[in-house]
Amino acid sequence: MVDGLNSVEDGGLFPRLQHRYGLRADPLDMDTPFFPDASRQHSLETLRHLCGFGDMALVLTGAVGSGKTRLLGELIRSEAARLDFHRLPTAALTSPQALARDLRAVARSAIAPDDGPREAVFKFFRWSQAKVRKGQRMVLLIDDADKVPPEVSRLILSGFLASERAMAAVPVFSGTEALLPLLDVDEDTLSVHHLHLRPLEKSDIYAYLEPRIQRAGGRVSELLSNSKLERLHSLSQGSFGRLKRITPGVWLDMVADKSGSRRRAGLSWRQFAWPALALIILAGSWWLVSLQYDHSVADQSAPKTKAEPVRKSVTVGPDTELAPEPEPEREAVEPAPAPVPVNDDAVAESSASVPPANDPEPAVDTEPSAVVSESSASANAEPQSGAAGAGESAPTEAADVQKKSSSEETVDAVTDSDVAAVSAQVSEPDEAKPAPGPEPSEPAFKPALPARFVDLDRLRDRTGWTVQLIAGHLESTALNLIRQYPELDGLAYTRSKLKDKPWFMVVYGDFVSSDAAHEAVQSLPEALRKQSPWVRRSADL
């Protein structure tokens, strides 16, 4: 694939780039400017300083294609005037003997032809000390030293350490990270200095290609867009060598995008956390709503059966038969009790409390208090007519009661006992009082505020008009209003009855006419005017 990208068939890749982007030159074939980022400039300055100072062997490591050779070339270009660089090719360093031959060619007469490899290497470093005295230090460059046999690299390092290091030639080893174990040195040793070139980041790739694209006449925004820059970084893996190989294919859209699959493989659960949380909350709320709906539907569908209380009533009156009531279910029919004996006096007294026959018959409740109040009310309403009727119909009523008692023996025991109890309760107060008397008078009313209380009869005797402000069943209602407006001297309250209950009214003033009363209303406080006071005659209270 790489060969296909770099092939020159069909005009090669650069003509295609030139045709598509209008480039004047190949930006990937430019050695200048030197790339200073990604710690390259720092490594270059360190090499320049330590090569001139001596005293330590230098080891430069980095991945394949990280720019080690380019860095050594920049070192030679910038320091060639004051340093004597001698490159030892990797192909010539196959054995210690090959190393001795190469060094003998440099030192010439300083190394005898019959010297062994180790002695030849040691003599070379002693000979290099003389060049420093002449003002020029020698530097040995061993590029790709990780491919050199380990014994050769160790022999060079041993010869340097055995010489006077401040004046001897400085060996510079360059290679991958496997070079340090081959040299058998510790990184913490003071005799060897280690430099490492890290891979390129996405920003480093942008900084490397931007000046070259500008010099070639291309558009940086088009060739280094976010998508293209992302693909260049993922495919080059931070290496200058891979970057130069894959960049033409990326710019010409000839390289498949593998970053998409990597992004998909790199998806984590955090990217789905918020959507999953939203779905969980939605499902929980739906479940709660459905549960409440089911409960409400169940409550509505459940029949609300409430037992209605059965009120038993007995109609009391002359010439009136007992209305038959629905018989409740019973397990066994009990014999009816003997009829209650009724004497003539009791019938006469009970008939005195019954209204005339032409009036509607009142229904008497089985409760004793209701029966007594009903009979006493009837007696008070027409005492004379009731007494006269009692004398005339006493014998007839006694005979009718005996006939009814004998004919109703088959009625339910519960109904008969209820009727008997009611009859007994009705007759007991009548027997105690031979003749109905007047109702006991209620206790005299004592006003809580006598200074503002006016009797109702006195108010009705007036011939003028008054203003009614408020009324109610409680005396405290009237007192609260009077105490709220003590400055109104004309305020007074009286007591009457409404539906047999006390009825308290607050009135204001005594006016000769309705117009005068209406004018007085306008002088009242605003809160009282908003209550719509009632202008009425005093006699109508």
TrEMBL record:
SUPFAM superfamilies with a match to the protein in the record: P-loop containing nucleoside triphosphate hydrolases (SSF52540)
Matching Pfam families: AAA_22 (PF13401), SPOR (PF05036)
SPOR domain: residues covered: 459-537
Any one GO molecular function term: ATP hydrolysis activity
Biased composition (Low complexity): 341-356, 369-382, 412-427
Coiled coil, from the record: none
Region (Disordered): 299-447
Organism: Marinobacter santoriniensis NKSG1
Official protein name in the record: Sporulation domain-containing protein
